[in-house]
Amino acid sequence: MIPHTFDTSFIIANRLSEFPDNFYLSDVVQLELIGSAADERIVKKLQAIRKYYADENLLIVPNADDWLMAGKVLYWLQQGVKRRNKGKSPPKVFGATQRMALDALIAISSRRYNVTVVTENYDDFNAINYYCKFKLMKGSEFLERFEEKLK
Questions:
Q1: What is the CATH number of domain 4-150?
Q2: pLDDT in tens, 101-138
């Protein structure tokens, strides 16, 4: 199986609680999962999962260069939107920039580890991929190829 990581959208959509071989955990995804946890029991479980992946050297953590590149990608994406709108910025969608920033961090930090990002949010990640190449796969394609490994 290819080395890979899952975006939060893939984990939630497929109700994953365990991960297959060759899986790398993104610390950015952990942030999103812990931030949306329903209760303290889930937070503790997520912390234990994070510790396991950190101990195994399978935890993807953005570094200073990743943060800088994510900022550049967000800038380039915004400039592309302005160009398509004849120089005007469209109305802001609440939370969209923050979600795109987190997706950019997932993509860019995953590139350093040479792992494939698996997501249900393919269009946003593909937009990021235009400016910063990384390995990307639709969640449906991953399931088609590796569903047995998730059971």
A1: 3.40.50.1010
A2: 999 999 999 999 999 999 999 999 999 999 999 999 99
**Cα-to-chain-centroid distance, residue 126:** 12
**For residue 150, what are the contacts with CB-CB under 8 A and spacing of at least 6?**
14, 16, 18, 20, 143
pTM of the shown model: 0.87
Over residues 16-36, the mean pLDDT reads: 93
Spatial separation of the C-alpha atoms in residues 34 and 144, rounded to whole Å: 28
Helix axes 27-35, 96-112, angle to 10 degrees: 150
Q: Which residues contact 28 (CB under 8 A, 6 or more apart)?
A: 60, 62, 102, 105, 106, 109
Structure tokens at 135: 């390995």
